[in-house]
Amino acid sequence: MLRVAFTLTLAASALLAQAPAGPLVRLYPVAVDASGQPVTDLTADDFKIVDQNKPESVFLFHGPKTEAPPPKLDVLEFSNRTRAARPHATVILFDLMNQNQPDRLEMWHVLDKSLPQLESGEFLYFYLLNLEGELVPIHAMGPRAADDATWPHDVAAALDKAMKTASHGRPVQLGQEDQAKKTFHQLEVLATQLALFPGRRDIVWIANGMQNAYNSKLPCSGDWVDCALYVPHLAVTLATAGVAVDPLSNGRDVATGTTAISGMDTPIGDKGQVRSIQGDTSNQQGAQGTDPALDLTQMARLTGGHAYFRQDIRTVVKQVATDANGAYEVAYAPSADNWDNKFHVIHVTAARPGVKVQVRERYYALTDSRTPLERTKAVLMEAFQSPMDYSEIGLRVKFAPLDGQTGVHLEIHVDPANLMLHHGDGGKYSGALYCLISDRNGSGPAGEPAVLELKPDLTADQYKSVLKDGLPIEQDHPTSAAQVRVIVLDENTNEVGSVTFPVK
At a CB cut-off of 8 Å and minimum separation 6, what does 379 contact? Predict the structure, then answer.
């Protein structure tokens, strides 16, 4: 056992030579056939990736989610996967700031009728973006909220209350750049919270367009991705969180693109009459200043989502969930000189005839000067401090009190299907893991955790055994805390699984 203080530098595994020197580019492609039906049996060899006209090899591959019975747990045994399929988390963001007054009112009444008819509210959350650019939670993210399947049935009263509070004009001091910055910032806030959930996550963003602030130092070729301020930061945050944005617009003018965003707000006068806003509307919406639908579509293409126009929220939520459940996880490892602080265009295709791939088409290649070990430590620290558990790597933990000592004996089983185990020439399967065991109290981590460095090196027979029962780890853990968290990280991919459980 290797036991070190978490504040010290982690030991570098010899097997890290197999890990990429730089960050991975992670993609969540959805494959469909000619009739639009999901194709879920592709292999890593079926995907062809080109980054800035340079072919890339698949480094990490996971197929779509498959429904399997959750593990049967014994007494004093806990798992970070307690349902048949890993959940797909979605946030509905009703953006008041980027809609005009009539469209806001119409969408409000549509949501009042449609949300209660959703099949389930599990892992579905609902926020408003008010006219000041602040998030207003209607059904906020959180451990208890995730399992609340019935909240949409009673949401109308909460939505009506929030909408009445927001029934005023947009603040006059809120300029075009402020509006763009606040919109992007709140999308990032939601994405960062969604990052705690496994797999691809989605934000269904109800808006009729967006304000843009352009960088005067860059030429604008008609694509705001290349020339807008704040978009690179947004792109990096969403990509890191694995979040796609799916714009939904039911605006009257979105099909013709004749309404500039600065003229979309129509404040109500003292006697209820509509007051118009005068002002310069040039270069307000998209690079052309005329087409709200263009920017919404580009947002979807930037993040791997899909843009919806004039569709019911129930249809959109169902389709987003279908796409997410059918999504693959594919990652590749570009060379070190790839990270040049520029947008890169990605082309992902399927070798199988007749199959089309929906995936984000760009990413911002932000320079990351950290070593692989520094990136690993950052991921571990985030999982250590997180209020919620991660389930990218499946874990089961059973504990028993230590004889004659204050503490517990832990039997940990790691799902090998979620690990990168290299099949060597000698027929063995090798990997490199960190296992972190920490005490927790009601407010978070308590004290310094134990960190174990693990180097599984399995024969073919051992590998078959762990595929069935999980990769076993046993450890005594002295503790007087009420809770313990076990975290496992794959050094080759920086994917994480964690489970927190009471020991008193």
Answer: 489, 494, 496
